[in-house]
Specification:
alpha/beta; six-stranded mixed sheet
Length: 552
């Protein structure tokens, strides 16, 4: 559609929502607020919020392109239709985090599933996404649903769907669910019931905590653990209870929780973007660190599947990148857990290539996957089905997602926080901090600077601009960029041995490489750079091309 068609479609759908929701006072008020805001109205209605990377994610508000009760019910009805067509006695467990309307959306999901005769288990309080993955198996459910927008800004919420193996749905299953949703209207054909919703028993949570505690490599070693002082922030999310309990279980006592970010706050007052990948999320934590004179800061995001680590080094605030933290955790595991022949490390294609050199030293095999921990979960499940689950050693993504043990099929901020604390204590007991250990690793295996850049393409025309941009890199950039010769170009829409994906990788003269792809959950282009030296000219060349398309 051209711009005129987009505008007409959006306005027609807006008027239809006004007519269909006359009995919903709250929705009517939200719709009326859009009457004099054409730009926002068009963005809210020009398309349906897409059931894309294993679910939904969008801005909270009224409209077909927003997260609201009508979109959630329609999505759940489509999921129910799919399940009832493929399972004789389907069951689903539902969890949610501390975001605005998370509990409301979870309850609407539960009621719609019950209206379609599906057995439902609902968590009574906020829970980590890793606990949901664990509960799917422990409760023998057909699927799981997590209401969260993970680490995104406070204006977002989302809806993630997990299969019976505990990882987010992929491939044909996701496509079929999406097709079932597309056949439905937002206001008609939705069946709901409040009868028969069951709550998840507390023993599931206790088992989860006990399982993670059993992975500790320093449990009870108080002499080592007591050397470290940690500031922890759950960023007003679901990690609070679980991280604190696990650390207490292993005997770690020097923990200070950031008071302003300890309890749920749907407005995320002190961290509007609760993302442990961003230094801005640590402002409150550094205040506490200064007060107590602690060693490191650990933070988990609202659904507690990601973990970040900050520290002071030579008077400077340092946030480890997801790759750096992954390198350090992998190094610690290799030192404390003896690697066995045939064991594997699984990482995404956009994660640091330094892992390959480290793995070679320890006789480990590295398997690369597309971006998305669901692909790591898929490989773990394949190993388990062959009776080879013990061959799993470690899995991670550069976006601060790690899994130290294959007890679930998704990244886990709780066990990762535990192992990060142990790792920092272990090195401090040997007289060094994490930056010093990282420098030792670089000295042995070579330096690999990693950078990730995000470029946002908002509004109804952003998707078209991103598509044109990806075509430019795919078709026009062949010989060189930023004064660097292109040695190899890999288009993942072609045959690579992995599922096809909208990703292009460039390997450049001098050891640098970069990967460009659109995000699967947000309106943005992501660029991942791996450099052995400063490549400012290359970075500026990439940015110039992207900014040109943003202005179209």
């Amino acid at each position: 559609m051209d711009k005129k068609d987009i505008k007409n479609y959006a306005n027609n759908e807006y008027r239809r929502w006004l007519e269909k929701s006359v009995k919903d006072v709250q929705l009517q008020q939200e719709l009326e607020q859009l009457a004099d805001n054409e730009e926002e109205r068009i963005d809210s209605f020009y398309t349906d919020l897409q059931f894309g990377t294993s679910g939904l994610r969008g801005i909270i508000g009224a409209g077909t392109n927003r997260m609201n009760e009508y979109v959630v019910r329609r999505t759940t009805q489509g999921l129910a239709d799919y399940l009832n067509g493929h399972c004789s006695e389907p069951s689903i467990v539902i969890a949610y985090d501390s975001r605005k309307k998370s509990k409301v959306f979870a309850l609407e999901t539960a009621k719609t599933l019950r209206g379609n005769g599906i057995e439902v288990f609902l968590f009574q309080e906020i829970a980590p996404v890793s606990l949901l993955s664990y509960a799917i198996g422990r409760l023998h459910c057909s699927m799981g649903i997590m209401i969260t927008a993970s680490h995104n800004p406070k204006i977002f919420n989302g809806y993630k769907v997990y299969n019976q193996n505990g990882y987010q749905i992929v491939g044909e299953e996701a496509d079929q669910i999406s097709e079932a949703i597309d056949q439905l209207d937002f206001f008609e054909g939705i069946r709901v019931s409040e009868e028969g919703i069951r709550f998840v028993d507390e023993w599931v949570c206790d088992d989860f905590i006990a399982k993670i505690t059993s992975f500790s490599l320093l449990s009870g070693q108080k002499k080592t653990l007591s050397t470290l002082s940690v500031v922890y922030s759950p960023l007003n999310g679901a990690g609070n209870r679980y991280v604190r309990q696990v650390l207490a279980n292993i005997g770690f006592e020097n923990l200070t929780v950031v008071p302003s970010q300890e309890n749920p706050d749907e407005n995320f007052t002190t961290c509007p973007t609760p993302n442990p990948e961003k230094i801005t999320a640590y402002t409150e934590s550094f205040k506490v660190l200064d007060q107590i004179g602690g060693d490191v800061i650990i933070a988990t995001d609202p659904d507690s599947d990601r973990v970040g680590l900050c520290l002071l080094y030579e008077g400077m605030k340092v946030l480890l990148t997801g790759n750096q933290l992954g390198i350090l955790i992998f190094d610690y595991l290799c030192q404390r857990r003896k690697a066995k022949p045939g064991q594997v490390v699984i990482k995404s294609i956009v994660s640091t290539p330094l892992i390959e050199k480290m793995a070679e030293k320890y006789g480990l095999q590295v398997i690369n996957t597309l971006t998305g921990f669901k692909y790591i979960g898929e490989l773990i499940t394949a190993l388990s089905n062959r009776g080879e689950e013990k061959s799993y050693f470690f899995g991670f993504e550069e976006s601060n997602g790690y899994l130290i043990n294959p007890f679930i099929r998704d990244k886990d901020g709780v066990s990762s926080a535990m192992i990060a604390v142990e790792m920092a204590a272990y090195h401090k007991a040997q007289g060094k901090n994490l930056i010093e250990r990282l420098q030792e690793i670089y000295a042995e295996f070579g330096t690999c600077r990693d950078k990730t850049r995000n470029y946002f393409f908002e509004g109804p025309y952003g998707a078209m601009a991103m598509k044109s941009l990806m075509n430019h890199f795919r078709r026009e950039i062949d010989d060189s960029i930023g004064g660097r010769k292109i040695l190899k170009k890999r288009d993942y829409m072609e045959e690579t041995g992995l599922p096809k994906a909208d990703v292009v990788e460039f390997i450049l003269e001098g050891g640098a490489r970069f990967i460009i792809r659109p995000s699967g959950t947000e309106a943005k282009i992501k660029v991942y750079l791996f450099e052995t030296e400063n490549n400012t000219k290359l970075e500026k060349a990439i940015e110039h091309i992207i900014e040109t398309y943003k202005e179209l």
